[in-house]
Request: fold
Amino acid sequence: MSNIITTINNIVWSTPLIVLCLAAGAWFSIRLAFPQFRHFVTMIKLLFGGEKSTDGVTPFQAFATTVGGRVGVGNIAGVATALYFGGPGAIFWMWVLALLGAASAFVESALGQAYKTRVGGEYVGGPAYFIERGLGQRWYGVIFAFCTILAPGILMPGAQTYTITSSMESAFGINQYVMAVILCVAVGLVIFGGVKRIGRVAEIIAPVMSVAFILVALVITVMNITKVPSMIALIFKSAFGAESMFAGIIGSAIAWGVKRGVYSNEAGQGSGAIVSSAAECSHPAKQGLIQAFSIYVDTIVVCTATAFMLLLTGAYNVIDGAGAIISEGIPGVEYGILWAQEAVNRDLQGFGGMFIAVSVFLFAYTSLLSYYYQAESNVTYIFKENKTAKLVLRIIFICAVFYGVLNTGSMIWTCGDLGVGLMAWLNIIAILLLSKKAVILLKDFEEQKKRGVDPMFDPAILGIDDKEHIWDSYKAQKK
Reply:
């Protein structure tokens, strides 16, 4: 089974997908005149705009839930994996993917908002919905929905559990199976409460955990401030093969930078569009810009914080394509979360293990909540308001969470990569086909802003039949 999954993953994550991720981000950036940079100030204002919601979650809750989903073990263990296989140059390509991917995040989330619907009194949306309603291809939407149930619902939770349990055992000596049971109970208490409870939990945990992690990274950076210039030079040189030690793995640097970038920030994967569709929003472009900002928080801030800790303290190893060690700064330690614990311990003696273990627990916990909501949204797409289908998903999801403790470190990452890759292929092709509609959404938003009015969305501009009067009711409420 391991060989089969690895073979399929290698096909899914072959060069074409890596090129597609970068090319799509570049295409949307150019086509939309780089909204991820032009509207940076607007992103901040929208995030704290204070819009309330009765049928969904607030913009900030949607942001916190997606950040909670994006900021997970991919930001700590994932960065370590990128360094191990791609060297310091992989960090540069993670940055590139984030800067370009923010445009992809804008497109998918804006489309998710525009084509959202209401089921059981709550907003639902995402790629499956805009594929069916925007492209008129129900079969394509169903395929995406099944892949999303498979990916965040079954394949991806294991990486979060494995990382939590191994870090907790290392830091506090808690048995991995005991920790897995505690995690399953904690997840179950929230996911049985629906999207609103997930949003309330995420808006509390996500900001606190991110700020604490960044502060510790800043302390370590200041303690090693004299090494920063040479570290930055190493990242850029390695990214382009100019550093002799890592010149032979430039292809791996690009591949692993993009792969771990997508795994971490999920730009182009479609998951952000699923969560952001649940938000109350007067214009789809608003939520698109908020989600573009979440890419910066995830990769440019949190992933960079992890990378700086590992590189400045030397707590990382690098191998070549044949598996031979090129650089060994932490001998005999498996790549992943233990590197981050060692990195913090080297400068903050005795603090690293506990701090990283707690950070990982909070990071991964909110990721699991976001994963569940993504899967549930697509169960709703296929089975509508079938309560049995949702109950079955909850049981399967909790089992998938526990299964992470039974798997091997390398295998859980392969499963996660496979899930991300399947979603990315389907979603990126869809948003490329719908790119004209994304242009219309952004132009409409910008034109209304120029007139000095709070932008309101008219679904007729995209030819959307708003049978449930989602947007009409919002206009009435505003009036």
About this structure: The first strand starts at residue 117 and ends at 119.
